[in-house]
């Protein structure tokens, strides 16, 4: 799998490769795409970006969406 999901860059200090898995909050926009908010480990700026949800997070996110029942999951998901 391509590692395309981990390419966030801090616009404040230019820190690269912010870890999506250490997000402060995540708003699922649609299947596999989310609005991530992270705190930059270098300058503590809040960084918000729309990113593909990494496969590692996908199960967790789907679980959370199901629990919230907030219409965030795919209608066809089980
Ligand atoms: Zn930064």
Protein architecture, described:
By secondary structure, the protein is α+β, with helices and mostly antiparallel strands. The protein is 18% helix and 26% strand. The chain has a 3-stranded antiparallel sheet, with no helix packed on it. The chain is elongated and about 35 Å long. The two termini are 24 Å apart. Zinc ion (ZN) binds next to loops.
Q: Characteristics of this structure?
A:
78 residues; alpha+beta; three-stranded antiparallel sheet; 3 strands; 18% helix; elongated; binds zinc ion
Shape: elongated
Mean pLDDT: 81
> Radius of gyration over alpha carbons?
13 Å
Main beta sheet strand tally, sense and closure: 3 strands, antiparallel
Q: Can you tell me the residue ranges where pLDDT is under 50 for at least 5 consecutive residues? A: 1-5
- Helix-and-strand structural type: alpha+beta
**N- to C-terminal separation?**
24 Å
Q: Estimate the helix proportion, in percent.
A: 10-25%
The number of helical segments is 1
What is the N-to-C order of secondary-structure elements (H for helix, E for strand)?
A: EEEH
Hetero ligands: zinc ion
What's the β-strand tally?
3
Strand content: 25-35%
Question: Can I get a quick summary?
Answer:
With 78 residues, the chain is of the alpha+beta class.
Set down the secondary structure blueprint:
Layout: E1 25-30, E2 33-39, E3 46-52, H1 55-68
Antiparallel strand pairs: 1-2, 2-3
The protein binds zinc ion (ZN).
Zinc ion is lined by residues 10, 12-13, 15, 40, 42-43, 45.
């Amino acid at each position: 799998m391509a590692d395309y999901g981990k390419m966030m860059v801090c616009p404040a200090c230019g820190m690269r490769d912010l870890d999506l898995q250490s997000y402060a909050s995540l708003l699922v926009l649609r299947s596999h795409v989310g609005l991530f908010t992270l705190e930059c480990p270098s300058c503590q700026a809040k960084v918000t970006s729309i990113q593909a949800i990494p496969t590692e997070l996908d199960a967790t996110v789907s679980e959370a969406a199901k629990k919230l029942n907030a219409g965030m999951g795919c209608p066809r998901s089980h």
